[in-house]
Prior knowledge:
There is one protein chain. The longest helix has 23 residues, at 288-310. The termini are close together. A seven-stranded mixed sheet has the order 4-10-9-8-7-5-6, sandwiched between helices. It has a four-stranded antiparallel sheet with strand order 11-12-15-14. 43% of the residues lie in helices and 13% in strands. Helix 4 packs across helix 9 and helix 6 packs parallel to helix 7 (192-202). The chain is an alpha/beta fold. A hairpin with an 8-residue loop joins strand 11 (314-315) and strand 12 (324-328). The protein has helices at 14-29, 42-48, 70-87, 99-110, 136-140, 164-174, 192-202, 214-218, 252-266, 272-285, 288-310, 338-347, 375-379, 384-399, 404-419; strands at 31-32, 59-60, 63-64, 91-93, 116-120, 142-146, 178-181, 205-209, 231-235, 246-250, 314-315, 324-328, 350-351, 353-355, 369-373. The chain has two domains: 17-35 and 288-419, Aspartate Aminotransferase, domain 1 (Alpha-Beta Complex), CATH 3.90.1150.10; 48-285, Type I PLP-dependent aspartate aminotransferase-like (Major domain) (Aspartate Aminotransferase, domain 2, 3-Layer(aba) Sandwich), CATH 3.40.640. The radius of gyration is 22 Å and the shape is globular. The structure holds D-serine (DSN). D-serine is lined by residues 36, 99, 127, 184.
Amino acid sequence: MAHSPFDAWITGDDEVTSLLAREWTRQTTTVQLIASENFTSPAVMAATGSIMTNKYAEGYPGRRYYGGNQVVDEMEDLARRRLTALFGADHANVQPHSGANANVAVYQALLNPGDTILAMRLDQGGHLTHGSPASITSKIWRFVSYGVTDQSNDPNQPGEIIDVDNLRELAHKERPKLIVAGATAYSRLIEPAIFREIADEVGALLMFDSAHPAGLIAGGSHPNPVPYADAVTFTTHKTLRGPRGGAILCREEHAKKIDGAVFPGQQGGPLEHAIAAKAVAFREAAQPSFGAYTDQVVTNARAFAASLAGEGFRIVSGGTDNHQVILDLRDFDAELTGKVAQEVLDLAGITTNRNQIPNDPRSPFVTSGLRLGTPAETTAGMKEGEFAQIASLIARALRHRDDEAAVATVRGEIAELCSGFNPYANFVS
Ligand code: DSN
């Protein structure tokens, strides 16, 4: 059985050790294409599993409600300093447990209940916290949604990009207090400058939810929203390749309110072990090699999209500028749903998630789309050639989805491919 670096620490608990070993095997013998996942460095994992997990530290450095925080204060200060330097921001809050918490904290800090927020439609790529009826956000604030342009057959302007005219029109009509830029299932560049321009036209604040592209921004592959936005929120575990968690960057004028909204507004004790791991990740993201990594993430996504198009899939928006490729499965096979594709690919050792596409006639549970991402396997060292191979294996598994032996053959080929690209190979004993 494969071992993870942590097995030695968990002696005498066979159930947990065995589950960890199984997950270790799953992650390293199948292909990870969830666009919001990555492989952290062993240093990030070690900090996440460190002694900092023992400490209560409600408050902020120098202003805690518990004793014994001398070292923790230095650690949180280090994480804040590294993060403000990485993005050139005035102020950082590294305590949010997730991107969702970070978003709600910004709303809570900058708005009153009932204020209007203009954000992206969930079924066209937005996030639950951008006003989904299922999210607490829609019960506290009034959301108005912008979407994407219609699909077109012109290969030079395929459509399905943020409809800036509609965004501007809605902003002028609704006069939102806050405009939210950012998405979770959108493969095109989101230009911060145009959002700032529209926000200024109507006197709105601007929040940039950069949960997905944060690493691409840190690596210099995408433009930095910090000079344009009042607040920038993100998760630390997607393209940024850190531990699970969130963070907020903001202008100095909003710092006190945003800190107060995170704690005591929403959260209790910060996860100082996660903050230690965030500090590690921010340092890693500041290295020149991280920029080479994020450039490769985008290069791989473009190559992947081209290969998938060659297999007969329609690529939503005609391509990608980031780490995501969103497939419309209907051209490939009108009967194939996102749900079935995800399940078949799981059996084939290819981990993906189903996703609604713009104007999807199917429900969010079934969907006509599949979201794919390149961050994790790029960390493992895969390049354009490997992504072309994965595209062909995806198509083969889906074409022969009723043939168990054919799907099992794909799984074998995937395992063979992964054996050459295990990001933790040096740690397997
Ligand atoms: N779960 C995240 C994603 O997969 O994009 C959004 O919160």
